[in-house]
Amino acid sequence: MESTLVNRKKLNPDGSPQERFGVRVRRLREARKWTQDELAARMGYSGRHISAIETANKPPTLPVARALDIAFGLEGTLDTFERQWNEIENGALVEGFPEYVGKEATAAEIRLFDVGLVPGPLQTSEYAAAVEAGNVKRGSITAEQATERVDYLIRRQAALVRPLPPMMIAVLDESCIRHCIGGLEVMERQLARLIEFAEQPNTSLHIAPFVMGELRPFNRSVNLLTLADRSVVAYVESQARGYLDREITSVAPLMRAYHQLQTEALSQAESVAVINQVRKGTS
């Protein structure tokens, strides 16, 4: 009998990625005739933690996945728990986003537009953490998933730092700089980060002011990538899902609309001036 009180909840091996993770942990543990406490001791966790993982009551983290791989001798194989964790993590992200980020990491040019929130590549880590903390409070993700999302963003940003960095053009709706995230101090540092971004030789920053009204062509996040072969892909995101589009017949109108947006938006000098004006209210 296991020393940890075991919840023998029957899991569906064909269920959610998190359920499949738990089913596999239980199957491999029982095949070795280990109790939850014995597996936990090998990993440096508690038996209750293992029970929660097996019953899908707690989402696995990357450190847990790696510890499981060590305990079960799966390191270096093609079927690690770390790989399975990545499937869960990507599943928690907006559909289509991981594929987009992979292409963004090698793109020659990146064009960003967003409403309400500063685009990910321009976010400070504390701004990103505040955004995810809001998601935790609303119950849409767990605290662990929030930490993992911020870590994912940091890795995404790091991939853009390379010997020949991409040309990055960002057009932000005015709401991005006026929507206070994380409190005044966090927002002040985020606005300062935008100024730093504008000062880089490979960047261009523009604010689309509220007075643009109906001339603003987009009402949601739009990203356009020019790849090394000069092909262009578009990523358009809503609240629940994203869509990566490679078809020139649909990408070309988005690129044309983006150029129109950039033309109607404030110049970089005007945009920096507006950001500094907003900063006076956060300091």
TrEMBL record:
<dbReference type="Pfam" id="PF13560">
    <property type="entry name" value="HTH_31"/>
</dbReference>
<dbReference type="InterPro" id="IPR043917">
    <property type="entry name" value="DUF5753"/>
</dbReference>
<keyword id="KW-0238">DNA-binding</keyword>
<dbReference type="Pfam" id="PF19054">
    <property type="entry name" value="DUF5753"/>
</dbReference>
<protein>
    <submittedName>
        <fullName>Putative DNA-binding protein</fullName>
    </submittedName>
</protein>
<dbReference type="InterPro" id="IPR010982">
    <property type="entry name" value="Lambda_DNA-bd_dom_sf"/>
</dbReference>
<dbReference type="InterPro" id="IPR001387">
    <property type="entry name" value="Cro/C1-type_HTH"/>
</dbReference>
<feature type="domain" description="HTH cro/C1-type">
    <location>
        <begin position="25"/>
        <end position="81"/>
    </location>
</feature>
<dbReference type="GO" id="GO:0003677">
    <property type="term" value="F:DNA binding"/>
</dbReference>
